[in-house]
Amino acid sequence: MGWWTNLEFEHPWLLILLLIIPFMIWWYLRNFTKTSANIKMPHVHTLAGGSSIKAKIFKWLPVLRWLAVASLIVALARPQQVLKEEEVKAEGIDIMLVMDLSSSMLARDFNPDRLSVSKEVAQTFVDKRQYDRIGLAVFAAESYTQCPLTTDHKILKEFLSQLRCGLLEDGTAIGMGLAAAVNRLRDSKSESKIVILLTDGVNNAGYIKPIQAAEIAEQIDVKVYTIGVGTMGSAISPISRKSDGSYVFGRARVEIDEELLQEIATLTGGKYYRATTQTVLESIYDEIDRLEKTEIEVSVFKRYNEEFRRFLIFGLILLALEWILKHLIFRVLP
Prior knowledge:
- Strand 6, helix 8 and strand 7 form a beta-alpha-beta unit.
- It is built from 11 helices and 11 strands.
- It is of the alpha/beta class.
């Protein structure tokens, strides 16, 4: 974006003087034949029906004057480039996203699969939380922190985009994933701390029980929102894996431990959601965004850079150029 994108005028009402330009053009066209008297001289070019390049250029000299006047009027209106500075006072919320990376997240009841849609919707959610610290934990049969709490949302979204199934031993250790997120929030000084845990299965791995992790969360005032992802009934899902690591797909029953997820959410003061489509998942994140609003106080300070000089200099250069061309280069006999 150029320097002109943040221009403001100290005296914008003076720009009405630009209406002089159309009048100057009309006056010139009306009086051109009267004010451009010259002596016709015989020349071989006239016999051929041609005209000199100088004669053609001469007709356009008034354009320099019109542009010069316009530039001087703009300078008179005193253009200024506005440089804004914001002082943000925010009651920030610390948020840990917890994402299931078990192979069932490749189920194709979402397009193209549950994991791809979950990552996309989570990235959109991150974009809305400008002043919050957000982190990312992942789990399958085990868990780890993919990204600690940070306000650098660009790097967080990069981590989200790189998530894929197969990074961890297959399984669903909901308790481990929740514990990893709660551990990151343990030393948080924020008045509001939340976890958004997304899974599509039943806890079947890990040495930390989900309720045990939820109790720890409740003790340190961490609110947990749980999301069960998957359609009702059955879906095309990975059912086995070949020797080369690729998945074999087949129809499998969708099993989500909704009772457990509901219990975790209730215990910590959060809420349980079931996402059966991408649209529903998007609405869930929208609701969480509304429920967990950040109190923000923004003070805006403005600094100005005077830009009238460039218009003034440009106008004077055009006037000088027109005078030189008219009186020295393209001089007309009186």
